[in-house]
Amino acid sequence: METIKMRNYFFMDMGVMLIRSMRHVFRSLDTIITVTIMPIAMMLLFVYVLGGAIKTGTDKYVNYLLPGILLVAIANSAGYVSYRLFLDKQRGIFERFHSMPIARSAPLWGHMLTSLVSNAISLVVIIFVAFLMGFRSSAGMLSWLAIAGILALFTLTLTWIAAIAGLAAKSVDGAGVIAYPIHFLPLISSAFVPTKSMPAGVKAFAEHQPVTPIVETIRALLYNKPVGNQIWVALAWCITIMFCAYLCAMRVYRKRL
Protein backbone atom coordinates (compact mmCIF):
# COMPACT_ATOMS: atom_id res chain seq x y z
CA MET A 1 0.00 0.00 0.00
CA GLU A 2 2.84 2.32 0.94
CA THR A 3 4.57 1.60 -2.40
CA ILE A 4 1.40 2.46 -4.34
CA LYS A 5 1.12 5.75 -2.45
CA MET A 6 4.73 6.64 -3.22
CA ARG A 7 4.17 5.91 -6.92
CA ASN A 8 1.06 8.08 -6.97
CA TYR A 9 2.95 10.96 -5.37
CA PHE A 10 5.79 10.50 -7.85
CA PHE A 11 3.46 10.82 -10.84
CA MET A 12 1.72 13.80 -9.22
CA ASP A 13 5.11 15.48 -8.68
CA MET A 14 6.06 14.84 -12.31
CA GLY A 15 2.75 16.35 -13.42
CA VAL A 16 3.44 19.53 -11.46
CA MET A 17 6.96 19.76 -12.94
CA LEU A 18 5.54 19.18 -16.43
CA ILE A 19 3.08 22.08 -16.05
CA ARG A 20 5.87 24.33 -14.77
CA SER A 21 8.17 23.54 -17.71
CA MET A 22 5.40 23.80 -20.30
CA ARG A 23 4.65 27.34 -19.11
CA HIS A 24 8.27 28.25 -19.83
CA VAL A 25 7.99 26.77 -23.32
CA PHE A 26 4.81 28.69 -24.22
CA ARG A 27 6.33 31.93 -22.93
CA SER A 28 9.49 31.48 -25.03
CA LEU A 29 8.92 32.78 -28.55
CA ASP A 30 12.41 31.76 -29.71
CA THR A 31 11.70 28.14 -28.78
CA ILE A 32 8.51 28.09 -30.85
CA ILE A 33 10.31 29.72 -33.80
CA THR A 34 13.28 27.35 -33.73
CA VAL A 35 11.44 24.10 -33.06
CA THR A 36 8.35 24.64 -35.25
CA ILE A 37 8.74 27.55 -37.65
CA MET A 38 12.35 26.86 -38.73
CA PRO A 39 11.66 23.24 -39.82
CA ILE A 40 8.59 24.46 -41.73
CA ALA A 41 10.71 27.14 -43.42
CA MET A 42 13.31 24.49 -44.27
CA MET A 43 10.58 22.26 -45.73
CA LEU A 44 9.27 25.12 -47.87
CA LEU A 45 12.79 25.91 -49.07
CA PHE A 46 13.66 22.34 -50.02
CA VAL A 47 10.32 21.56 -51.67
CA TYR A 48 9.74 24.77 -53.63
CA VAL A 49 13.32 25.94 -54.31
CA LEU A 50 15.61 22.90 -54.29
CA GLY A 51 13.15 20.03 -54.76
CA GLY A 52 13.10 20.23 -58.56
CA ALA A 53 16.84 19.54 -58.74
CA ILE A 54 16.81 16.61 -56.29
CA LYS A 55 16.08 13.16 -57.72
CA THR A 56 14.53 10.84 -55.15
CA GLY A 57 12.39 8.57 -57.33
CA THR A 58 9.15 9.82 -55.73
CA ASP A 59 6.34 11.77 -57.37
CA LYS A 60 6.34 14.43 -54.64
CA TYR A 61 9.52 15.54 -52.91
CA VAL A 62 7.56 16.59 -49.79
CA ASN A 63 6.63 12.92 -49.32
CA TYR A 64 10.29 11.97 -49.32
CA LEU A 65 11.37 14.95 -47.19
CA LEU A 66 8.85 14.92 -44.33
CA PRO A 67 10.42 12.17 -42.12
CA GLY A 68 13.73 14.04 -42.10
CA ILE A 69 12.07 17.36 -41.29
CA LEU A 70 10.32 15.76 -38.30
CA LEU A 71 13.68 14.57 -36.97
CA VAL A 72 15.24 17.99 -37.57
CA ALA A 73 12.48 19.58 -35.48
CA ILE A 74 13.20 17.16 -32.62
CA ALA A 75 16.95 17.80 -32.91
CA ASN A 76 16.33 21.56 -32.74
CA SER A 77 14.60 21.16 -29.38
CA ALA A 78 17.56 19.39 -27.75
CA GLY A 79 19.52 22.60 -27.23
CA TYR A 80 16.62 24.19 -25.36
CA VAL A 81 16.31 21.23 -22.99
CA SER A 82 20.01 21.52 -22.19
CA TYR A 83 19.72 25.30 -21.74
CA ARG A 84 16.74 25.11 -19.36
CA LEU A 85 18.35 22.39 -17.27
CA PHE A 86 21.48 24.51 -16.98
CA LEU A 87 19.46 27.52 -15.84
CA ASP A 88 17.62 25.47 -13.21
CA LYS A 89 20.93 24.15 -11.93
CA GLN A 90 22.63 27.56 -11.96
CA ARG A 91 19.76 29.28 -10.13
CA GLY A 92 19.54 26.59 -7.48
CA ILE A 93 16.03 25.55 -8.54
CA PHE A 94 16.77 21.86 -8.06
CA GLU A 95 17.99 22.46 -4.50
CA ARG A 96 14.80 24.36 -3.70
CA PHE A 97 12.66 21.52 -5.02
CA HIS A 98 14.71 18.99 -3.06
CA SER A 99 13.98 20.88 0.16
CA MET A 100 10.29 20.14 -0.47
CA PRO A 101 8.54 16.77 0.09
CA ILE A 102 8.70 15.70 -3.58
CA ALA A 103 10.49 12.93 -5.46
CA ARG A 104 14.12 13.93 -6.05
CA SER A 105 14.06 12.97 -9.73
CA ALA A 106 10.68 14.62 -10.46
CA PRO A 107 12.20 18.00 -11.58
CA LEU A 108 14.43 16.20 -14.10
CA TRP A 109 11.59 14.02 -15.37
CA GLY A 110 9.48 17.16 -15.74
CA HIS A 111 11.91 18.38 -18.40
CA MET A 112 11.82 15.00 -20.15
CA LEU A 113 8.01 14.98 -20.31
CA THR A 114 7.98 18.61 -21.45
CA SER A 115 10.24 17.68 -24.35
CA LEU A 116 7.84 14.89 -25.35
CA VAL A 117 4.71 17.06 -25.16
CA SER A 118 6.16 20.17 -26.81
CA ASN A 119 7.72 18.13 -29.62
CA ALA A 120 4.45 16.29 -30.20
CA ILE A 121 2.66 19.63 -30.66
CA SER A 122 5.36 20.89 -33.04
CA LEU A 123 5.32 17.70 -35.12
CA VAL A 124 1.53 17.80 -35.51
CA VAL A 125 1.79 21.39 -36.79
CA ILE A 126 4.57 20.44 -39.23
CA ILE A 127 2.60 17.46 -40.58
CA PHE A 128 -0.45 19.69 -41.03
CA VAL A 129 1.60 22.18 -43.08
CA ALA A 130 3.02 19.28 -45.11
CA PHE A 131 -0.56 18.21 -45.95
CA LEU A 132 -1.23 21.74 -47.21
CA MET A 133 1.88 21.40 -49.39
CA GLY A 134 0.61 18.19 -50.97
CA PHE A 135 1.89 15.49 -48.64
CA ARG A 136 -0.25 12.36 -48.68
CA SER A 137 0.15 9.05 -46.86
CA SER A 138 -1.48 5.65 -47.25
CA ALA A 139 -0.54 4.66 -43.69
CA GLY A 140 -3.23 3.16 -41.47
CA MET A 141 -3.82 3.77 -37.77
CA LEU A 142 -1.32 1.13 -36.63
CA SER A 143 1.39 2.57 -38.88
CA TRP A 144 0.78 6.07 -37.53
CA LEU A 145 0.97 4.74 -33.96
CA ALA A 146 4.27 3.03 -34.81
CA ILE A 147 5.58 6.30 -36.27
CA ALA A 148 4.50 8.17 -33.13
CA GLY A 149 6.29 5.61 -30.97
CA ILE A 150 9.53 5.88 -32.96
CA LEU A 151 9.42 9.69 -32.85
CA ALA A 152 8.78 9.62 -29.08
CA LEU A 153 11.71 7.24 -28.60
CA PHE A 154 13.97 9.47 -30.72
CA THR A 155 12.82 12.49 -28.70
CA LEU A 156 13.67 10.83 -25.39
CA THR A 157 17.03 9.70 -26.74
CA LEU A 158 18.08 13.23 -27.72
CA THR A 159 16.55 14.70 -24.55
CA TRP A 160 18.61 12.48 -22.26
CA ILE A 161 21.74 13.35 -24.24
CA ALA A 162 20.88 17.03 -23.86
CA ALA A 163 20.32 16.50 -20.13
CA ILE A 164 23.93 15.38 -19.71
CA ALA A 165 25.19 18.57 -21.34
CA GLY A 166 22.81 20.82 -19.38
CA LEU A 167 23.69 19.29 -16.01
CA ALA A 168 27.44 19.05 -16.62
CA ALA A 169 27.96 22.42 -18.36
CA LYS A 170 29.70 25.28 -16.58
CA SER A 171 28.35 28.01 -18.88
CA VAL A 172 25.35 28.75 -21.09
CA ASP A 173 27.49 28.26 -24.20
CA GLY A 174 28.63 24.89 -22.91
CA ALA A 175 25.03 23.83 -22.35
CA GLY A 176 23.98 24.79 -25.88
CA VAL A 177 26.94 23.27 -27.73
CA ILE A 178 25.33 19.80 -27.67
CA ALA A 179 22.83 20.98 -30.28
CA TYR A 180 25.47 21.38 -33.03
CA PRO A 181 26.59 17.76 -33.50
CA ILE A 182 22.98 16.58 -33.15
CA HIS A 183 21.91 18.90 -36.00
CA PHE A 184 24.43 17.35 -38.37
CA LEU A 185 23.05 13.81 -38.10
CA PRO A 186 19.79 14.45 -40.03
CA LEU A 187 21.68 16.47 -42.63
CA ILE A 188 24.20 13.69 -43.32
CA SER A 189 21.65 10.92 -43.78
CA SER A 190 19.01 9.81 -46.26
CA ALA A 191 16.64 12.48 -44.89
CA PHE A 192 17.08 14.91 -47.80
CA VAL A 193 18.68 12.90 -50.62
CA PRO A 194 19.25 9.18 -51.27
CA THR A 195 22.59 8.00 -49.90
CA LYS A 196 23.55 6.48 -53.28
CA SER A 197 24.13 10.02 -54.62
CA MET A 198 26.79 10.76 -51.96
CA PRO A 199 30.57 10.33 -52.24
CA ALA A 200 31.84 6.99 -50.90
CA GLY A 201 33.09 8.24 -47.51
CA VAL A 202 30.01 10.32 -46.79
CA LYS A 203 27.76 7.52 -48.00
CA ALA A 204 29.40 5.03 -45.61
CA PHE A 205 28.85 7.38 -42.67
CA ALA A 206 25.27 8.21 -43.68
CA GLU A 207 24.30 4.57 -43.98
CA HIS A 208 25.78 3.58 -40.61
CA GLN A 209 24.59 6.33 -38.31
CA PRO A 210 21.37 6.33 -36.23
CA VAL A 211 19.23 8.78 -38.23
CA THR A 212 19.17 6.95 -41.57
CA PRO A 213 17.44 3.75 -40.34
CA ILE A 214 14.95 5.89 -38.39
CA VAL A 215 14.16 7.97 -41.48
CA GLU A 216 13.86 4.88 -43.69
CA THR A 217 11.57 3.17 -41.16
CA ILE A 218 9.23 6.16 -40.89
CA ARG A 219 9.22 6.56 -44.68
CA ALA A 220 8.30 2.88 -45.16
CA LEU A 221 5.52 3.08 -42.56
CA LEU A 222 4.07 6.21 -44.19
CA TYR A 223 3.68 4.47 -47.54
CA ASN A 224 2.89 0.90 -46.42
CA LYS A 225 6.18 -0.47 -47.68
CA PRO A 226 8.10 -3.33 -46.02
CA VAL A 227 10.25 -1.96 -43.20
CA GLY A 228 12.65 -4.91 -43.27
CA ASN A 229 15.50 -4.89 -40.75
CA GLN A 230 15.62 -1.09 -40.68
CA ILE A 231 13.09 -0.87 -37.86
CA TRP A 232 15.15 -3.16 -35.62
CA VAL A 233 18.32 -1.24 -36.40
CA ALA A 234 16.51 2.03 -35.61
CA LEU A 235 15.13 0.69 -32.32
CA ALA A 236 18.50 -0.77 -31.34
CA TRP A 237 20.23 2.57 -31.93
CA CYS A 238 17.62 4.55 -29.98
CA ILE A 239 17.26 2.19 -27.02
CA THR A 240 21.02 1.66 -26.61
CA ILE A 241 21.87 5.38 -26.80
CA MET A 242 18.93 6.37 -24.60
CA PHE A 243 19.81 3.80 -21.92
CA CYS A 244 23.46 4.92 -21.81
CA ALA A 245 22.48 8.61 -21.83
CA TYR A 246 19.92 8.01 -19.06
CA LEU A 247 22.50 6.35 -16.80
CA CYS A 248 25.03 9.13 -17.44
CA ALA A 249 22.46 11.90 -16.91
CA MET A 250 21.21 10.43 -13.62
CA ARG A 251 24.78 10.01 -12.42
CA VAL A 252 25.61 13.64 -13.23
CA TYR A 253 22.30 14.77 -11.70
CA ARG A 254 23.06 13.06 -8.38
CA LYS A 255 26.69 14.19 -8.40
CA ARG A 256 25.92 17.84 -9.13
CA LEU A 257 23.10 18.07 -6.59
Automatic annotation (TrEMBL):
Membrane topology: Multi-pass membrane protein
Annotated ranges, domain ABC transmembrane type-2: 30-256
TM stretches of this protein: 29-49, 61-87, 108-135, 141-168, 175-193, 231-253
Record key words, sorted: Cell membrane, Membrane, Transmembrane, Transmembrane helix, Transport
Stored PROSITE patterns: ABC_TM2
Subcellular location: Cell membrane; Membrane
Domain of life: Bacteria
Family, per entry: Belongs to the ABC-2 integral membrane protein family.
Name recorded for this polypeptide: Transport permease protein
Source organism (scientific name): Mucilaginibacter lappiensis
